[in-house]
Amino acid sequence: MKKLRIYIETSAISNLEQPTNPIVQQDMRDLWLQIKDGKYDVIISSVTIGELADIADVGKRDILSSFLDEIDFEFAEYEKHMEQLVKSIIQNEILTDNHIRDCQHLACAIDKKCDCIVTYNMRHMHKITTVKGVRALSILHNGNDIDIVKAETLLDKGDEYDS
């Protein structure tokens, strides 16, 4: 079975060290263990690396950066040709230009033919209009279906949620 290609956005990495939300933190750490075990092909972009570098709290920045040292990932440079995807995202009102970094994340994930984007940016990335718009744009761009998910979506939690 082919591994899923997952794009890890900055908010997901930030939740690896988020004691104020222990459930989300545990889900991300469980996903991280699966990544370390090679279950997924992971894409981390220069946009994500740049956002991590911009974290003002040096201690948190160092902790989050150290998580990247634990895994194998494909580094995706945000490239000039991806700007057309960003423009399409804005023109199609998937996101606005107020969220340019998020548009860049989406463009990288679409361009790299990822199967899903892992994010906890709940305000606008998980909106149904964003999910459907990104999926349609990805299919038009490269024929690839893409989803926007939280870590828990990728975890096999067995029957614990069955009633």
Question: What is the H/E order?
Answer: EHHEHHEHHEHEH
**Widest beta sheet: strand line-up:** 3-2-1-4-5
For this structure, what is the CATH homologous superfamily? 5'-nuclease
Helix content: 40-55%
Could you give a short account of the major beta sheet?
A: 5 strands, parallel
List the uncertain runs. 159-163
- Average pLDDT, all residues: 92
The first-level CATH class is given as Alpha Beta
The 3D shape can be described as globular
Give the N-to-C terminal Cα separation.
30 Å
* Total of DSSP H or I helical runs spanning 4+ residues: 8
- The number of distinct structural domains comes to 1
Please report which band the strand proportion falls in: under 5%, 5-15%, 15-25%, 25-35%, 35-45% or over 45%.
5-15%
What's the CATH architecture? 3-Layer(aba) Sandwich
Report the structural category. Answer: alpha/beta
Computed CA radius of gyration, to the nearest angstrom: 15 Å
**Number of E-state strands:** 5
* CATH-defined topology: Rossmann fold
